[in-house]
Write a structure and sequence with these properties.
Strand content: under 5%
Order of helices and strands: HHHHHHHHHH
Structural class: mainly alpha
Distance between the termini: 61 Å
Shape: elongated
Length: 203
Amino acid sequence: MSPRRTNAERTETTRSQLTHVARELFSERGYASTTIAEIVERAGLTTGALYHHWAGKEALLVDVVHDIHRELAVRIRSLGRVEDEPVAQLLSSGREFLAFCADPAVARLLLLEAPAVLGYERWRQIDEQWWLSTTIRLVERARATTAGTGLAVEGAGAEGSRRLALALLGALTYLGHEVAMKGSPTVAGAGRTYEVLLNSLFP
């Protein structure tokens, strides 16, 4: 006889199920064309169960976006550490992001639907929540071990590293949009462009 699940376990199962189904439907039909009724029907749950966890569809989209970032983080961790070299880690994680953007479902939700629905500022905050601190740490390590032009352009100190990290994330977002629009054949070229950028900053 299997042990009874706790309330916390049941709650997490329900949230995960609804998030997964919402992600599927948003990818298939688009956010605007998907209704709450369709989400709960596919999940086999009630409307009340959904509203118990989220105020509405937009709040659910926020969790879907976090779910996509979480999946990307797992993929990047699965690469392992590239030696222990910060520039190599920036490059490998950037390439993984660009390959991730070649998935039409990911591209539609993460790069098109989410910023349009949530607004650029909220969308950017979620992105930075997942990636900014890690990128800053890698940039700081890279700056400490190279004499890259980024030192002269941005100046010394934590704020310089933060600006460089934001610039790298912005470049990846732009390249990710290109991959999303043009498809998987552009992944390699976008990755080479990002590599050139990194090498110019940290030669």
